[in-house]
Amino acid sequence: MKQTVTISTENITLGQFLKLADVIQSGGMAKWFLSEYEVYINGEQDQRRGRKLTVGDKVEIPEVGVFVVAGE
């Protein structure tokens, strides 16, 4: 099941997105989370917490969920 996460800016970093989507509790957990879990953005694995996401991007985290970035 896909969850939609709405952003109010043109883009958002992967670390900020994980916090906004309630996958992690704080921004400081992003580095640890990305080292422990595989994260796929639009089908490609990416572990960079500074990766820019824009509206329409799909973030898949096995065993956690599938998220779609939406704009306001």
Structure report:
There is one protein chain. The protein has 72 residues and is α+β, with helices and mostly antiparallel strands. It has 2 helices and 7 strands. The protein has helices spanning 14-20, 30-36, and strands at residues 2-7, 11-13, 40-41, 44-45, 52-54, 58-61, 65-71. The strands form 2 sheets. The protein has a 5-stranded mixed beta sheet with strand order 1-7-6-3-4, with no helix packed on it. The chain has a two-stranded antiparallel sheet with strand order 2-5. β3 and β4 (44-45) form a beta hairpin. The two termini are 21 Å apart.
Compile the SSE list and pairings.
Layout: E1 2-7, E2 11-13, H1 14-20, H2 30-36, E3 40-41, E4 44-45, E5 52-54, E6 58-61, E7 65-71
Parallel strand pairs: 1-7
Antiparallel strand pairs: 2-5, 3-4, 3-6, 6-7
Brief synopsis:
The protein has helices at about 15-20, 30-35, and strands at about 1-5, 10-15, 40, 45, 50-55, 60, 65-70. With about 70 residues, it is an alpha+beta fold. The model has no long low-confidence stretch (mean pLDDT about 95).
Structural class: alpha+beta
* Percent strand: 35-45%
Helix content percent band: 10-25%
- Outline type: globular
* Strand segment count: 7
C-alpha-based Rg, rounded = 11 Å
Kindly report the spatial arrangement of strands forming the biggest sheet: 1-7-6-3-4
Poorly predicted residue ranges: none
Major β-sheet annotation: 5 strands, mixed
N-to-C series of helices and strands: EEHHEEEEE
Question: What value does the average pLDDT take?
Answer: 95
